[in-house]
Amino acid sequence: MASFRRLLRAGCQAALPLGLVLRPALAPAQPGPADTLRFNALMVQFERASPADTAAQRRYLSQALGLSRRVRYEFGEGAALNALSYVASLRNDTLAHRRLLQQARQLLVPLYRRHHNPRVGQVLAANINNQANDLQVKGDYQGAARAMLDLIAYLRQAGAHELLVVAYYNLGGVFFSLDQFEQAIYYWKQALALQNQVRDAPVLVVAAANIANHYTAHGQFAQARPYLAQAAALSARPPGVQYRDQYLNAQGKYELAQGRPQQGVALLEQALTLARRRGDPSIILAMLPDVAEGHQQLGHYAQTRAYLLECLSLTAAAGDVDQTVELEALAEVEEKLGHPTRALAYFRRFHTLHDSLNSLEVKTRLNDLETRYRTREKEQRITLLQQRQRLQAEELRLQHQLTYGAFALIVALLGAGGLGYAALRNRRQLERQQQQLQAQKIQELEQERQLLATEAMLRGQEEERSRLARDLHDGLGGMLSTVKLYLGSVRGNVVLPEASAQLFARSLEHLDGSISELRRVARDMMPEALLQFGLVPALRDLCQAIDAGAGRRLGSEAGGPRVQFQAYGLEETRLPQRTEVVVYRLVQELLNNVLKHAQASAVLVQLMRDGRHIQLVVEDDGRGFEPTTVRGGVGLRSIQARVDYLRGILDLQSAPGQGTTTTIDFHLTAPEAPALEATVRTAETSSLV
Amino acid sequence: MEPIRVLLVDDHRMVLEGLRVLLEPLEYIDVVGSAATAAEAFAVATATRPHVVLLDINLPDLNGIDVCQRLVAEQPAIKIIALTTLNERSYLTRMLQAGAVGYVLKNALPEELAEAITKVYAGKKFFSDEVQDLLLLPDPATAPEAAAPILTRREKEVLAFIADGLTSQEMADRLFLSPLTIETHRRNLLTKFDANNTATLIKAAARLALI
């Protein structure tokens, strides 16, 4: 009985001619309206021309093509080429068909990438579909599957569900011919999943029936049942009713497998009757073994024999050399019917054939190879013709011989190709994920790059400042001091008139002022103490220098605020030098802002370290501001840049009349790496009061 | 009376020259040598055994603090006056710790310089006027432990809430902050009051009348 099952395979694929040839869609408006109208008119004329009158069709399309090229109407050109390729296929001119398809595609793909126009997408879909059909005819299932996956992508973007159903169905068929049943079932199910979104999709009956057949053949009856029900429902009314035979056949097989041959045979006979009415021999051929098997189970050997003989004649007509299954079954049946001589004859034929074909698997491969071989041969011949070479015949014979050698190679390639398929879908998905990942990575790298640029700029700035500060301090400062020494020594030695003496004294004062001003500038630029002793002493110096409280205690009447500094957990520690400089600058800038704007009477600068977490707070009791209005000033921006450098978080809290608190949190990285990493502190809700 | 032997150390030849011109006419001072680097200074000091060294803090090869320390270690009787433009407390204290007995700013007048040399030679200390101002300030490095710690506004709020017995989550809700931030404030408060737990913290804060 198992021998019959092997024939199931042939049936599934033959159930529908692979791939509906898609007719091109009409043009969208783009160039001058007059040209568009003419183009549309030509296309309409082409549509209306009798399918048999390919000459007229070609004429209209050539005109449309010429027009599109003249006015540089790319879509029109693509659509016309596409339609021309369709006409070429009607004339069985494979070569022109392929060439035109390719030309059209070269135009349409970039066009679609640029505009994503759904109509372009549809024409492109038609193009790819026809290419897939062509590849399949050539026996290049791999190429066909690739083209169809491409097609499906376009159709999904275009939202063309009707066509998508057909494409899924066809792709399932391709995988089925490749013995990749899982994949085949997957795509047929995809087609079925769309059934609520399409109205006119008769192939869904076939898809459901195919799935049911697969499950039945593998004894998974529970899984077969829902698909049978679907096929039944879909084929109960138009448009699915035209494939009612497929459903009946599937249901019959199911009954047979369930051990109900009576019902099974009845259903299979019905299916066969409907199929005969449709008149597709490949479908009839696919159904015959099932009916034969059913009758055999019921003991109706005469009917079994009749069906098997029909099978035999049909396979012969289809040019299929492999009749082993039929012959073996016939031998068995003749024996049952009491005709041992006939049985023996069939058995002998079976054995001869079997020996020559070795196995069914080899046979299908041979078929595939033969198709490929013929395709190649044909292409070769065409090339030779085109080149008008006299050695044509000889070349062909040579090619013939070479091909035998190529057989072994191709068998191996086929195996590899099969494996490649299993990975095909996975790979596409992986590729998509990888693309997303890559985009993300690029963004991260971009951010990283910006950060590095800022870092480099800040570092360069600091180095430059450090150098300048030293030059000022040591060079200019030293010279001014020396000048002052000289002048001071002169003072006691000469007697000057009153006015000149005053001038001299004022000059000395100014010189003094200049020296201390220079000292201040140099310290602001790069405090020596910071590099020498570290952040805390340097900040202490800085705060003390502007602390009016300190000034008052010394008797001077400075108008500035009281500045207090406190540090915890940092006394003995030196941070990475760049970090220290950045933090120092932050305090400088923040204090600058306070002095300039806040009119504060007290400022607190606080630096705390807890493990690797460092927090800087600068808080004043000044007039504050409305945070929403001040964002993004130059001062704030440079503060933000420095905080970014530390990969820290800046939190600014202020309100008019309420003072301002600036908090900066950041983390030190591991001691060996001087770079700093961001804190993971959750951003605070804006409680800016 | 033997003149005071003076060594000049400064990396600017011009400054060295100026100092020499100013000091040489004084009969009680004998400029025994000058050096532009730390290495030179050590060599000349060993060779000339000066009484007083006028030492610049910024030297190209070694900083003045270390030079001072080593000179004092080698010749304990040596008197070192820091001669610098750096009018900062951190330098001043460190130079003093390193054994310097004078601190003179470079914009000093010649007589101030002469006075400094004679004073330190006599075993006293000498500081420029501006430097003395710095010395008058309380040392902030030791101040915080003595006085009450200064609290930020947020820390005051959190301290009050802690005293009221609120949980971190409750505080977070009231202050519109994340509990994590509240934890940071709480930890900072413990650090500032040198407390191990909330009870000690409240006690310390109450003692300082902060709550």
UniProtKB/TrEMBL annotation, chain A:
Q: What is this protein called?
A: Sensor histidine kinase
Q: Name one GO molecular function term.
A: kinase activity
Record's PANTHER family? NITRATE/NITRITE SENSOR PROTEIN NARX-RELATED
Provide the transmembrane region boundaries: 402-424
The UniProt entry, under Pfam families, shows: HATPase_c (PF02518), HisKA_3 (PF07730), TPR_8 (PF13181)
Which domain of life does the UniProt lineage start with? Answer: Bacteria
**Coiled-coil ranges per the record?**
423-455
Which ranges does the UniProt record give for the TPR repeats? 165-198
Which residue ranges does the record assign to the Histidine kinase domain? 467-670
Question: Could you tell me the keywords of this UniProt record?
Answer: Coiled coil, Kinase, Membrane, Signal, TPR repeat, Transferase, Transmembrane, Transmembrane helix, Two-component regulatory system
**InterPro entries, alphabetically?**
HATPase_C_sf, HATPase_dom, His_kinase_dom, Sensor_HK_TwoCompSys, Sig_transdc_His_kin_sub3_dim/P, TPR-like_helical_dom_sf, TPR_rpt
Q: Where is the signal peptide?
A: 1-29
From TrEMBL, chain B:
The organism encoding this protein is: Hymenobacter aranciens
PANTHER family recorded:
NITRATE_NITRITE RESPONSE REGULATOR PROTEIN NARP, TWO-COMPONENT RESPONSE REGULATOR
Q: Which Gene3D superfamilies match?
A: 3.40.50.2300
User: Which SUPFAM superfamilies does its entry note?
Assistant: C-terminal effector domain of the bipartite response regulators (SSF46894), CheY-like (SSF52172)
Listed name of the protein: Response regulator transcription factor
Alphabetized Pfam families for the sequence = GerE (PF00196), Response_reg (PF00072)
Q: Which residues carry this modification: 4-aspartylphosphate?
A: 56
| Segments forming domain Response regulatory | 5-121
Q: Where is the HTH luxR-type domain?
A: 144-209
Name the PROSITE patterns for this protein: HTH_LUXR_2, RESPONSE_REGULATORY
Among InterPro entries, the record links this protein to:
CheY-like_superfamily (IPR011006), NreC/VraR/RcsB-like_REC (IPR058245), Sig_transdc_resp-reg_C-effctor (IPR016032), Sig_transdc_resp-reg_receiver (IPR001789), Tscrpt_reg_LuxR_C (IPR000792), WalR-like (IPR039420)
Q: Keyword check for Cell division, yes or no.
A: no
Keywords from UniProt, A to Z, are: DNA-binding, Phosphoprotein, Transcription, Transcription regulation
